[in-house]
Amino acid sequence: MSKEWKIPFNRPFIAGKEMEYIARAVNENRKISGDGPFTGKCQAWLEATLGAKKALLTHSCTAALEMSALLCDIKAGDEVIMPSFTFVSTASAFVLRGGVPVFVDIREDTLNMDERLVEGAVTNKTRAIVPVHYAGTPCDMDVIMDIARKKGLRVIEDAAQAHLSTHRDRYLGTIGDLGCLSFHETKNIISGEGGALLINDPEMAARAEIIWEKGTNRKLFFRGEVDKYTWVDIGSSFLPSDIVAAFLYAQLEMAETIIAARRRLFDLYMDRLGDLARQGLLRLPAIGDQGTYNGHIMYIICKSLEERAGLTRYLEERGIKAVFHYVPLHSSPMGEKWCRVHGGMAQTDAASDRLLRLPLYYEMDDEDVSQVAEAVAAFYSKVITS
């Protein structure tokens, strides 16, 4: 039986008409398999709001990444540049096609892939770059896109954590050739499991639709563009249930409200923990000035692995759930087997050892944030006096 936390790390939530729309999908639409009315509504929302040329809902961000690998024709031996400080799906989607993830280190400030290292990692086998917008903070997409254009490479944005964050007034996920979103229950906008592929290169749109529909031209058939549908390409079953889409659509309707609430909580954390950062006891997230953030993750950087472990225990004793993040992929068994590293990984290893994520979810209130911040401050007061 799981522990009942006074302040959990995350808590799924109902923001609006989720249950009403699920009932409508079942009782009125009579369509709960993939590509139903609510799927269409979600895709239209993403296209209109974000400015993507085409959006396709998927059952996960992992599925969107796997579709991206197919659309970019990744084959055995092709190299894809990405950070090691990311979730396994970023790499495994390309390994499944025989590709070789090439890891470069992250920046110390934003924890995003260090754009200054990308060009040096390019070889004659490189086919794509996969920037990961960590914590909803934008990578330097100007530099990355310039390198991609110069080298003839595809750019696939892993924007799993970055819904409604921007880089120079453009939504993350809409800048590269393809963008991958997540609606997992730990993200800002949720549907339990779920994701979306944003297709920003119009030349990829028709094939994306076929890959999405198991490699068939089924969509063309239903639009009356062919007289029967058949198997015409490789693909898989990437569609979510329309029940999932119904839940998601209610969240999308409330997206601005949800993001604003998370930004406010994030800003409150930054204020309450500011003195500790100014004293040099811990480090707070670097927001940067190239775009807007979405308040996805509130993290602190401790001075050592041991200090982080002590703080985690201290918070747990007070009913507060705080968690570390990624074990770097370059040091994982599959990373060592299927991937390669370009250069050193000092910043990646440091972030993995020292980063601690604090509770942040839509239904938190100011008092919750204050309790967490006060507990963190109390821990460091003991550190100072010990």
Could you walk me through the main structural features you see in this protein, from its secondary elements to its overall organization?
- With 386 residues, the chain is of the alpha/beta class.
- The chain has 2 domains: 18-253, 3-Layer(aba) Sandwich (Aspartate Aminotransferase, domain 2); 255-385, Aspartate Aminotransferase, domain 1 (Alpha-Beta Complex).
- The protein is built from 15 helices and 12 strands.
- It has helices at 18-27, 37-50, 61-71, 88-95, 118-121, 141-151, 205-212, 218-222, 242-253, 255-272, 274-278, 305-317, 333-338, 346-354, 366-385, and strands at residues 54-58, 79-83, 100-104, 126-129, 154-158, 166-167, 170-171, 178-182, 195-199, 298-301, 340-341, 355-358.
- The chain has an 8-stranded mixed β-sheet, sandwiched between helices.
- It is globular and about 80 Å long.
- The two termini are 36 Å apart.
- 49% of the residues are buried.
- The mean pLDDT is 96.
What Rg is obtained from the alpha carbons, in whole angstroms? 21 Å
Distance between the termini: 36 Å
Named CATH architecture of the largest domain: 3-Layer(aba) Sandwich
Name of the CATH superfamily of the largest domain: Type I PLP-dependent aspartate aminotransferase-like (Major domain)
For the record, the CATH class of the largest domain is Alpha Beta
Q: Could you name the ranges where pLDDT drops below 50 across 5 or more consecutive residues?
A: none
